[in-house]
TrEMBL record:
SMART domains: AAA
Domain called ABC transporter: residue spans: 34-266
Domain of life: Bacteria
Protein name stated in the entry: ABC transporter ATP-binding protein
Length: 289
């Protein structure tokens, strides 16, 4: 099953129907290219990262890493349009993100925040269905097709049968997967994930990161675990001292020299004894005598 293509076809039919009823519905490109030019981001009145410039091709999986407080979440929120940049531009599919209408932006970028807490009185299926909002005509209600899309998204994140489960009865990991399902039905070409493995056990963490490689969309995620970023990302952006290193493949972005300078630990990339795939090993610095 290709959830993305099937979902898009259904939403296109809904959009056609809405246009027939006189509702203004925008079309959406599938391209997930993203360009950042001279971006500076602030949390409150404090600028936390400056001079960020990079270009991402459609379909890439990008990791953002850096010590605590270097602006990973702030940068993601700016890329999502949640925060306005202090200066610079975010260009998605050839358009400046912060000049888009809210509906257009919601059809372009979806974000799963690190500690988002949906209203406790909602059920899991209702939270997921919120991702369909950018495609509904004014005062539009969900259709049976859209209910099926919700069920399919929950199945994709291994939550089959959870649609009627109250959010307040979910574990932290289950709630995080519900929010990911909401982002999937939002069906944007660009998906932003802030610490997506937060609250997840190791099995679901690895499963989620593996799924990001099969979503047929551009994925940008902030990660604390350097080994996971090294394993699952095409390229990595390292934030350090208020700016960003060049966006490069993992062996360059997380070279032993960079990891030592930025994180103060030793790194060694060695082949896995069973698969042969390179793995990043992290060890603390030896204490100075």
């Amino acid at each position: 099953m290709n959830l993305r293509n099937d979902h898009r076809a259904r939403l296109d039919r809904r959009s056609d129907a809405a246009r027939g009823n006189g509702a203004a519905v925008e079309t959406r490109s599938d391209a997930g290219a993203l360009e950042v030019r001279g971006l500076a981001c602030a949390a409150g009145r404090r600028t936390v990262v400056t001079d960020v410039t990079f270009a991402i091709q459609a379909g890439e999986t990008i990791g953002i890493v850096g010590p605590n407080g270097t602006g990973k979440t702030t940068l993601l929120q700016t890329l999502a349009g949640v925060r306005r940049p202090v200066r610079g531009d975010v260009i998605a599919n050839g358009q400046v993100l912060h000049q888009m209408s809210a509906r257009r932006r919601a059809r372009t970028v979806a974000m799963v925040a690190q500690d988002e807490r949906p209203p406790a009185d909602l059920r899991a299926g209702e939270v997921v269905a919120l991702g369909l909002t950018p495609y509904l005509p004014p005062w539009g209600a969900g259709s049976p097709h859209e209910q099926q899309v919700v069920q399919e998204a929950l199945a994709t994140v291994d939550l089959t049968g959870f649609a009627d489960r109250p959010v307040h009865r979910l574990s932290g990991g289950e709630r995080q997967r519900v929010l990911l399902a909401r982002a999937l039905v939002q069906n944007t070409p660009i998906l932003l994930l802030d610490e997506p493995t937060n609250h997840l056990d190791i099995t679901h963490s690895l499963d989620l990161l593996a799924k990001t490689r099969t979503l047929n969309r551009t994925v940008i995620m902030a990660l604390h675990d350097l080994a996971l970023a090294d394993r699952y990302c095409d390229r990595i952006l390292v934030l350090h001292n208020g700016t960003a290193h060049p966006l490069t493949p993992p062996p360059d972005a997380l070279s032993p020299e960079v990891v030592d300078e930025v994180f103060g630990v030793h790194a060694l990339r060695i082949p896995h004894p069973k698969t042969g795939h390179p793995h990043l090993l992290i060890t603390p610095r030896e204490p100075t005598p």
